[in-house]
Amino acid sequence: MEYGKLLSRSVNIVWQNKFLIIVGFLASLASWSSGGGGGGGGGGGNGNGAPLEDEFAAMAAGLIVAVACVVLVLAIVIWAISAIARGGLIASVDAIESGEKSSFRQSWSAGWQRKWTLFGVGILPAIPGLILFVIGLMALGAYGSIFALFDQDFAQVGAAGLGITIALFACILLPIILVLSILRNFAERACMLENLGVVDSYRRGTKVLWSNLGEAIVLFLLQIAIFIVLGILLFLPSLVLILCCFLWPLLLLVQGAVSAFLSALWTLAWRSWTGEPPLVEKAPTAA
């Protein structure tokens, strides 16, 4: 595989079809909302009984659970938009590389037409994260109940036990999420480019990955290197953009461009691995 050609072609596709940056931003929304949140609680007390503190702890835990439920609903909406946009990016890059024209409307339409399959493909890596989220909610509810029903010494022991339980589940589920997320990247391309169902998309994606594991690892390492270089080069500019609210749209454009570039990179690699025609050097011109 000619990695230099692959990288330059990915850049050219995004540069020549700037609507991909907008689609890329929508595709990156899920990564913005998937950052884990953590809560730490520590109750201090003087003496054996602190009813007001216990009641406050229970109310705080209930409020956190309610807010978490709202956040979960918003996260699901954002996740759905992101899944459709990722599918649209794949379809658009493939169409452009095949010598056809594409647009934002066509990109979104392509993803929308395959939305249920894309949701199915995307939900598999999300299931372990959802399980961890639900466990966290249950732990928060139990935390509030323990403080409300038992004395403080027992409550602190119970809270520690809940924390250890969540940590153990996290150690088990996070590696599973990572592996499934890698496979999802390939399954989405099987879904969009070969019109397969959820199970068949994962089978096909796993087969393509396994058959080209060496090149995929190199491409993944190149992606990490690109992130490191961009992180170094854009650290100060990004800091300025974050601090200056009126420059936030520019930061979003950068995020969209990076997302579109990476999607193009893996889509072009998929085409190469599955025997599609050589890369098109120039965008098609109107007749």
Question: Would you list the SSEs in sequence order as H and E?
Answer: HHHHHHHHHH
Low-confidence blocks of residues: 33-49, 281-287
- Indicate the percent of residues in helices: over 70%
The coarse silhouette is globular
Q: How many strands?
A: 0
Write the layout of secondary structure elements.
Layout: H1 3-16, H2 19-27, H3 29-33, H4 51-97, H5 104-113, H6 115-149, H7 152-194, H8 198-211, H9 213-243, H10 248-273
Helix pairs in contact: 1-10, 2-4, 2-10, 4-5, 4-6, 4-7, 4-10, 6-7, 6-8, 7-8, 9-10
Give a brief rundown of this model.
The chain has 287 residues and is an all-alpha fold.
Can you offer a commentary on this structure?
The chain is built from ten helices and no strands. 82% of the residues lie in helices and 0% in strands. α4 packs antiparallel against α6, α6 packs across α8 and α7 crosses α8. The C terminus is likely disordered. It starts with a helix and ends in a 14-residue tail after the last helix. The radius of gyration is 23 Å and the shape is globular. It is an all-alpha fold and 287 residues long.
